[in-house]
Design a protein that fits this description.
EC 2.3.1.20; six-stranded mixed β-sheet; acyltransferase; 15 strands; single chain; about 450 residues; lipid biosynthesis
Length: about 450
């Protein structure tokens, strides 16, 4: 594959980017080696494995047709060493220093003339730990595809790939001329899609707030700065709560976010918002086994986070009921499915409409809360086991916080990305989430 048009949602993410609002995903992974972290050998290994992933050698270029479109094309001058870099951290608390520098690195947009990704190897003198920060443009990958791409750097996946590439199944030749039944089916599908798009658009308009700008703690003018906060939640605790409350583990985690936000707002001395803040909860539209397929495949649910409710168990029940309603309606309908509209817009509309779309996101939701799935197996890099991995999501325009969660090694790792000037107390929010989980656990075990 040398050239491939960007899918509509990928194109939207590409044009949504600005200097203050870079549109890359990230992950900060911590490893523990037998001896002192050797950044040179880790960087060399990362470069070798990244170079073996074809998608990471492609860049975005404009095309004449369709007008306003863009395509992935193989970068002929691709040099993986420009994308894998090393940073030596000072002595002291390695995790704290790594988290701080990761936040600063997340501020910087990826260079658009190059394949849109970077990796940083973070080491410190005398430390057996080392960390790897991965940045992938959202046009390159949604959460599931980012995992599929990023997993290629780990020993287990890289080893399986080196053992032998999977054979490509031959596809029988097929005429490009559609038959009459295909024409009828195509027309019917297009009409159904138009109907869905109109319904989603109407739901978005009904859900948009034209006179209410939500919780002040979550709204801000952008400073272009970033801060990263982390929290670790016990998966066993989450599952104990779920068994008592019913619903899903994700319901519990969303309730933890809601309760954490409430605690954080009250500790800041801020009044609780007149209306509960709304979370955009992304939902993958990928079919099982299709994570390697190109193009973002996302929809989302809108969820009111019940920060005005004082009781933690009642908050969880409220979240569960709201998510049950969302699931009953389905991820392809309702205002939360706004990402689906991208599939129905021409490329030129994405190019010129992105600034407007970015500005109105604040009218629809207040905070992004996303769960990123990871392989269940134990992972390592160069023989060094992975100890923790914190996902990071981009900030929408006019918003100060994004929350991402991943489960690995019996723990839920929470990555909080915030505007550094709007949310200087991000560690306090991380602590509020751990306290909220403990409160729910006490209520569940009584």
């Amino acid at each position: 594959m040398s050239t491939e048009l960007l899918a509509p949602l990928d194109l939207a993410f590409w044009h949504l980017e600005s200097t203050e609002h870079p549109m890359h995903l990230g992950a900060l992974a911590f490893f523990e080696s037998d001896g002192e972290g050797d950044s040179d050998s880790v960087a060399k290994l990362l470069a070798e494995r990244a170079a073996a992933i074809p998608r990471l050698g492609m860049r975005v270029r404009p095309v004449w047709l369709p007008v306003g479109g863009a395509a992935w094309s193989t970068a002929k001058d691709f040099d993986v060493r420009r994308h894998v870099r090393q940073i030596r951290l000072p002595d002291g608390d390695f995790a704290a220093h790594a988290t701080e520098i990761a936040g600063e690195l997340m501020e910087q947009p990826l260079e658009r003339g190059l394949p849109p990704w970077e990796m940083y190897v973070l080491t410190a003198p005398g430390s057996r730990a080392f960390a790897v920060l991965v940045k992938l443009h959202h046009a390159l990958a949604d959460g599931m595809r980012a995992v599929a791409i990023g997993a290629g750097i780990f020993d287990q996946i890289a080893g399986a790939r080196a053992a032998g590439a999977r054979r490509e199944r031959s596809v029988p030749p097929r005429s490009w001329l559609p038959g009459p039944h295909q024409v009828v089916g195509f027309a019917r599908d297009r009409l159904e899609e138009v109907g869905r798009a109109v319904g989603i658009g109407a739901s978005v308009m009904r859900a948009s707030r034209f006179d209410l700008w939500g919780a002040s703690a979550l709204a801000s003018g952008s400073s272009g700065t970033r801060r990263l906060g982390t929290a670790v939640l016990g998966l066993d605790d989450v599952l104990k709560i779920r068994r008592v409350a019913g619903g899903t583990a994700n319901d519990v985690l969303l309730a933890v976010v809601a309760g954490g936000l409430r605690r954080w707002m009250l500790e800041r001395g801020e009044p609780l918002p007149a209306a509960d803040p709304r979370a955009l909860v992304p939902v993958s539209r990928r079919r099982p086994g299709s994570a390697a397929a190109s193009g973002n495949r996302l929809s989302a649910y809108l969820l009111g986070l019940p920060v005005s409710e004082a009781d933690a168990w009642t908050r969880l029940a409220s979240v569960r009921r709201a998510m049950d309603r969302n699931k009953a309606e389905g991820p392809g309908r309702g205002a939360g499915a706004v990402a689906v509209l991208a599939d129905h817009l021409p490329p030129l509309a994405h190019r010129f409409g992105a600034p407007i779309a970015g500005s109105v996101a604040r009218m629809l939701f207040d905070v992004l809360v996303t769960s990123v799935p990871l392989p269940r197996s134990t992972l390592s890099l160069g023989g060094s086991p992975l100890r923790a991995i914190y996902p990071m999501a981009p900030l929408a325009r006019g918003q100060s916080l994004a929350v991402a969660l991943s489960t690995y090694g019996g723990q839920v790792h929470v990555g909080l990305v915030a505007d550094a000037e709007a949310v200087p107390d991000l560690d306090r929010l991380a602590g509020s989430m751990t306290h909220e989980l403990a409160t729910l656990l006490r209520a569940a075990t009584g």
